[in-house]
Amino acid sequence: MNTLGLSTLFRMGCLCVRESVDINGVKYTVKDRLGEGGFSCVDLVEQSSTKKKYALKRITCHSIDDQKLANEEISYYKKLKHANIITLIDSCIKGSADLVVQTTSEAYLLLPFYKRGTLHDYLVLKSCTKNYLNVREILRLFSDICEAVRYLHHFSPEPIAHRDLKTANVCLTENMEPVIMDLGSCAPAKVQVCGIQEAQRLQDIAAERCSMTYRAPELFHVESFCVIDQRTDIWSIGCILYALLYFKSPYDIVYERGDSVNLAVISGNIPFPEETPFPMELHNLILSILKVNVTERPFIEGVIESLTNLKRKMEFAV
């Protein structure tokens, strides 16, 4: 009787070997790949003993600097405690990154798994049938996102900016509550830029970490002598609010046309559909947030105040 080689069995699917990961003595089995980027990926994993599912973010570190950034991300997860910000369940770093000897390490961040996926996923489904969210739902979701942002912007001892707020970085719980995730772009909210080199460095970081269609104008061309503050996030949540109405950021639409997002952002022109089911007050709220001149853009308190006034005007509970 002929026998098949091991490699043949794998190709034929006769064997199914699941990768397992050990995090601080607890074993998890990798079930599926949920997403991936340049230097990280997110897997669906299952704890072997309880069968409970989690999301596992894995960051490949090629240098000591990469490993430092991974540790900083873990640090942000550990110290931020808010109902609308994702919770870190466990973490560890395995291996040692060194460019000289060409070794890498891997950071493991164990996070909750949200079956509903992200706000981006939800809006894509809605857009397929032009099934607009109702105003009450829009204001509820946006209010919760704003509260999480307020928590970040008032964090002590130093305010924090997320720097990559977008619908794809907002998970949805079973009860449709928004939860901000991906804290890898978080940084001190206020940055004093002194000189061309510092400006270029910040601009390069923004280009790498901040999604273009949600990126604030001042991060596209960082001035040589300026102060960048938490109002970069305000621009981003303005784009999120637009997406809650029309499924995408206004600059996603520009990007998909193949036009320059940079030019569209600095133009200050926000395109609204001619036919809309929404009251003009919502458009006006978006316009009050998406101010190209950062000095005209409100801080989070101003956004929440405008939102509260709009709720009162539309006879919704505060």
UniProtKB/TrEMBL annotation:
Gene Ontology CC, one term: Golgi apparatus
EC class (word): transferase
A Pfam family: Pkinase
A GO MF term: ATP binding
Coiled-coil boundaries: none
Keywords: ATP-binding, Kinase, Nucleotide-binding, Serine/threonine-protein kinase, Transferase
Catalytic activity: L-threonyl-[protein] + ATP = O-phospho-L-threonyl-[protein] + ADP + H(+); L-seryl-[protein] + ATP = O-phospho-L-seryl-[protein] + ADP + H(+)
PROSITE patterns on file: PROTEIN_KINASE_DOM, PROTEIN_KINASE_ST
Enzyme Commission identifier(s): 2.7.11.1
The UniProt record lists the keyword Transferase: yes
InterPro entries: Kinase-like_dom_sf, Prot_kinase_dom, Ser/Thr-specific_kinases, Ser/Thr_kinase_AS
Keyword Transferase attached: yes
PANTHER family: SERINE/THREONINE-PROTEIN KINASE 16, SERINE_THREONINE-PROTEIN KINASE 16
Name listed for the protein in its UniProt record: non-specific serine/threonine protein kinase
Organism: Rhynchophorus ferrugineus
Lineage, opening ranks: Eukaryota, Metazoa, Ecdysozoa, Arthropoda, Hexapoda
